[in-house]
Amino acid sequence: MAYFKKVLTKFIFVIPFLFSSIAFSESSDYNMKVGVTEVSESIFELHMLIFWICVGIGVIVFSIMFWSLWKYRKSKGAVAADFDDNLGLEIGWTVAATLVLIWMAVPATQVMVEAYDDAEGEINILITGHQWKWHYEYLEDEVGYFSNLSTSQEEINGDVPKGEFYLREVDEPLVIPTNTRIRFLITGNDVIHSWWVPDFAVKQDAIPGFINTAWTNVPEPGIFRGACTELCGIKHAFMPVVVRAVEREEFDAFIAQKVTLAEAERLLTSKNWTKEELMERGEAFYATNCAACHQAGGQGIPPVFPALQGSQVAMNDSARHIEILMEGVQGSAMAAFGESYSEIDIASVITYTRQAWDNDTNGDGVIVTPQDIVAYKNRIDL
Amino acid sequence: MSTVVESHDHGHHGPAKGLSRWLFTTNHKDIGTLYLWFSFIMLFIGGSMAMVIRAELFQPGLQIVQPEFFNQMTTNHGLIMVFGVIMPAFVGLANWMLPMQIGAPDMALPRLNNLSFWLLPMAFGILISTLFMPEGGPNFGWTFYAPLSTTYAPSTVNFFIFSVHVMGVSSILGSINIITTIFNMRAPGMTLMKMPLFVWSWLITAYLLIAVMPVLAGVVTMMLMDINFGTSFFNAAGGGDPVLFQHVFWFFGHPEVYIMILPAFGIVSHIIETFSRKPIFGYSSMVYAMASIAILSFVVWAHHMFTVGMPLAGELFFMYSTMLIAIPTGVKVFNWVATMFRGSITFETPMLFSIAFVALFTIGGFSGIMLAIVPADFQYHDTYFVVAHFHYVLVPGALFGIIAGAYYWLPKWTGNMYDETLGKLHFWLTFISVNVTFFPMHFVGLAGMPRRYPDYALQFADFNALISVGAFMFGLTQLLFLFIVIKCIKSGKQAKPEVWEGAGELGLEWTLTSPPPYHSFSIQPQVK
Question: Which of A265, B213, B439, B522 is 20 to 30 A from B142, alpha carbon to alpha carbon?
Answer without folding.
Answer: B439
